[in-house]
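Problem 12. The chain below contains 128 residues. Write out its predicted structure in C-alpha cell notation.
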Amino acid sequence: MRLSRGAAGAGLVAVVLTAAVTGVPMVLAAQSAGPVLRVTPAVVKPTDHITLSAQGCPVPAEAFSEAFDTVVLDTNGRGRTLMIDQDVPPGRYEITLSCNGDASTASLVVAPPGPLVLPLGTIALARN
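Solution.
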C-alpha cells in the first residue's frame, strides 16, 4: 500500500508527536544494511540532554551536528548522553553518524525556550 505525500507527512508528524510525548526512543535514521542512529528524545531545547546510540557499527562511530560537539559512540549500543549547546538557535538539525566508511543521518528539533509546543501546535508541555 502506498501513502500519498500528505498521508506520509501526517504519519511522520504523528510518530514524532508520539515519541516526544511518550519518551520512546525515536529512530529517524534511514533503515538500511548500514549503521542505525538512535536519538532520544527527538525534540529538545537548548541545554537539554539527548542520548545518541549507534547500532550495526562494528567499530566506535562519530556523531556530529551543529547542535553539539562531535562525540564518539561505542559499539555496545548503550548510547551516550550529551547536552545541547546553550546558544543553539531553534530549528531542525541533521545529525550524521560516521561508521567505518558508512554514514547514517537523523534529525533533531531544537525548540525555542519556554513551554515545549509540539509540531501540531495543539499540546504544550511545561518543562522544569
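Discussion. Helices lie at 5-22. Students who got a different answer should revisit the alignment rule from Section 12.3.
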